[in-house]
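Quick note —
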Amino acid sequence: MRLRGGGVGIALGASALVLLAGAYVGCAGGTPGGATGTLQLTILGVAPGMESLVIRVSGDGIATPITETISSPEVTVPATEAALIVPAGEARTVEVEALDLLGVRRGRFAGVVDVPEGATTDLDAQLLEVLRQVAWASDRDGNWEIYVANEDGAGVVNVSQDPAEDWEPTISADGTKVAWTSQRDGNREVYIASTDGTGLLRLTDDPAMDFGPSLNADGSMVAWSSFRDGDMEVYVANSDGTGLRNVSNNPAGDAHCSLSADGSRVSWMSERDGNQEIYMANTDGTGVVNVSQDAGWDAGSSLSADGSRVAWESQRDGNLEIYVASADGTGLLNVSQNPEGDNGPSLSADGARVAWWSYRDGNNEVYVAGTDGTGAVNVSTNAGGDRAPSLSADGLKVAWESDRDGDSEIYMANSDGAGMARLTIDPASDRYAALQGG
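Predicted structure written out below.
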């Protein structure tokens, strides 16, 4: 990828994601104090998987930040929209960010260029991809704890740090917050902390059981299941515990929720109709809808970023299958279409791809496919048991737990099956993988 501007050219590696932070741009020509310069950015190539990113340009001298979606191999931001009004020869800062569908930075640039007056400078920049983070539960300390690490396995942090049991992690799409279920208070409560282990907060404080949290994109909202009303209900609150509300509000059992990344909607499993169905509502409790509408067993929902699409597992065909539909229940489609069991869907942010685990090969394997049912790929491809996948927001990466090594470990791969790597290496059990944006 190449970004070129008046007075400066910045060459970017085509295989990397992009964030240019602190690139100094000066005006070519003119007289000090009176000249103005213009910056025009042209993207000459798009790396695989970058079509869903947004380039955002801002900085000194740009009155209004410019945003351009990468939708083709060549995108030009018009010079008239990117006028840099700066004295000739004086350095100014321009930031160029590459953002994914949830507004999360996907790369960074390490380097500085200072353009002298009247000169044009080309900079070949070494781009370092911002790695996704993964959370999981491990009993490597003799009890279950919540761990967070980069997707390459580096930077491992024990976030929970308590002798009681901690499990069921969920990580925000921006990688800043992790929430989980903890037994440290003698009953199950929901805790939240920064992914570096700081800022630990007990979100729930009730003698009844609270469990199964789900975070929005920036970790400012949490949904979870609670027994505080004498039955299972789905609650939503701000991550500081304020704004508590019962969203499901029904005497039947309601549990196993999924919060949309934008915090607008929540889905869950409900028994209010005498069987298990997938319900959805706005996070203020309005707009309750039965999405699945079938006499069979429906559970395990996963929402798209805006809550417009939902995936879940259903037994309506006499076996477990993965279904996807719009939030109002229309456009229902069986994605897995196999007589063996298919479980545990994880939906991408745009609702275009879904991961799940399947027994179709005679053992549990992790599959990824388009939500139109096409392009199914066996990602895990191993005779051991592989299950419980978590799909990244852009649908390009998937993490899961595998027992191929004789114990449960966390693995990651591209959603086409390439680049498989073992994230955890420990003789204890590592389970419940939660991938940033998953």
